[in-house]
Amino acid sequence: MRPEQTAAAHPNIAFIKYWGNRDDALRLPSNGSISMNLSGMETRTSVRFDPELQQDCFTLNGEAQVGAPLQRVSQFLEHVRKLSGSGCFARVSSSNNFPTGAGIASSASAFSALALAASKAAGLDLSQKDLSRLARLGSGSACRSIPDGFAEWLPGEDDGSSYAVSIAPPDYWDLADAIAVISQDHKPVGSSAGHRLAHTSPLNAGRVTEAPERLATCREALLNRDFERFAEVVELDSHYMHAVMRTSTPPLVYWEPATEVLLWQVWQWRKRGHAVCATVDAGPNVHVLALSNELDWLKKALAELPGVKNVLIGKPAEGARLVG
Ligand code: PMV
Fold first, then answer.
1. For the domain bounded by 5-170, which CATH number is listed?
2. Which residue's CA is the closest to the ligand 1 atom numbered 8?
3. Which atom of ligand 1 is nearest to the CA of 103?
4. Is the dihedral of CA 177, 181, 185, 189 positive or negative?
5. 252: Cβ below 6 Å to ligand 1?
6. Helices and strands per DSSP (H, E), number in the chain
7. Do domains 5-170 and 175-314 have the same CATH topology?
8. N or C terminus of the chain with fewer C-beta within 10 Å?
9. 134 CA distance to ligand 1 centroid (A)?
10. CA 142 – CA 133 distance, rounded (Å)
11. CA atoms of 124 and 79, how far apart (whole Å)
12. pLDDT by residue (tens digit) across 270-320?
């Protein structure tokens, strides 16, 4: 056991999305995914295992958590206790500098920071692969926030082979994510529940079967810094996921009217020659991926669109790390 350890991690935006599991308990995904860590937005988490505690304690943004959030953290700490062979409960204190649960992947930064801080505090020194596997057990997309920059989650066959690797460092491509925040409310159906509905959509089998092709196109476009090709496959993949969501039983509709208006606007800008494209996660907010030289006008133009409350900017960032 070590003294308190603090880790920081960024959320990530998926270019090729993870939606649906082959194994819900182990969070083994139906398909691989590719993402970029987002600078500027961050979760910081401190963990200390304490032999005096009778149960785990978890505070988020200064507020003590009970019920489902505490249970999820506690369940995750069970994996760490199993790995380290210790039965001690822990004090976990976490803070986000961006809205929680609104399609900005707070669970990704949360569980990647928790995996690093908790494993270190428990006396473990896990490899990056094993840290990514551990983070995956808390939230699938969290495995992609462990490595640096642009990451690919290899779906794998089992717990040992499902983890994320860096495919390019943060400075590889001057890409940015301008997030048009339409709502900061908690989403009505969380992604864990959403993943369980994916197989109820008649469109899901096609989405999964064709995923390797989209992954290859995205990986290649990214490595060649080919924005046109990248934009096409990113938008196709986002629409595929939302089509699956909308045709699930019961249907999942995360978009708001403003989401649709923004997507239309981004297409108009691209038609006029701007390097911009859009992707949407499990929430109404629109992530506008753009070459950095588009940011000045883009930030202003997005902020002026109806329904946009705020524009957050994320650039390619490092993976999870220990902080003092
Ligand atoms: O990691 P989860 O269970 O929060 O799922 C994330 C799902 C999406 O954000 C919609 C897609 C993705 O790949 O990040």
1. 3.30.230.10
2. 281
3. 9
4. negative
5. no
6. 9, 16
7. no
8. C
9. 16
10. 9
11. 12
12. 999 999 999 999 999 999 999 999 999 999 999 999 999 999 999 999 999
- pTM score > 0.90 for this model? yes
Main-chain phi, psi angles of 292, to 5 degrees: -55, -30
Domain assignments of the chain as residue spans, ordered by start: 5-170, 175-314
Domain 175-314, second-level architecture: 2-Layer Sandwich (3.30)
Name the DSSP letter for residue 274: -
The label of the residue with tokens 């840290």 reads 131
Residue 34 β-bridge partners: 16, 152
Main-chain dihedrals φ then ψ at residue 263, nearest 5 degrees: -60, -40
Q: What single-letter DSSP state applies at residue 266?
A: H
Query: For residue 207, which of 31, 22, 27, 33 has the smallest C-alpha distance?
Result: 31
CA of 276 to the centre of ligand 1 (A): 22
Distance 105 CA to ligand 1 centre (A): 7
Name residue 96's beta-bridge partners.
Answer: 43
Distance from C-alpha of 180 to C-alpha of 131, rounded to nearest angstrom: 31
Beta carbon of 151 within 6 Å of any ligand 1 atom:
no
Q: Contact at 8 Å (CB) between 14 and 34?
A: yes
Instruction: Indicate if ligand 1 lies below 6 Å from the C-beta of 177.
Output: no
Answer yes or no: is the C-beta of 192 below 6 A from any ligand 1 atom: yes
CA 117 to chain CA centroid, nearest Å: 18
Task: Establish whether residue 31 lines the binding site of ligand 1, counting it when its CB lies within 6 angstroms of any ligand atom.
Answer: no
**Amino acid 188: pLDDT:** 76
Please indicate whether residue 36, judged by its CB atom, sits closer than 6 Å to ligand 1.
Answer: no
Give the residues across from 58 on adjacent strands: 92
* Closest-CA residue to 36 (of 277, 311, 293, 323): 277
Q: Is 112 in the pocket of ligand 1 (CB under 6 A)?
A: no
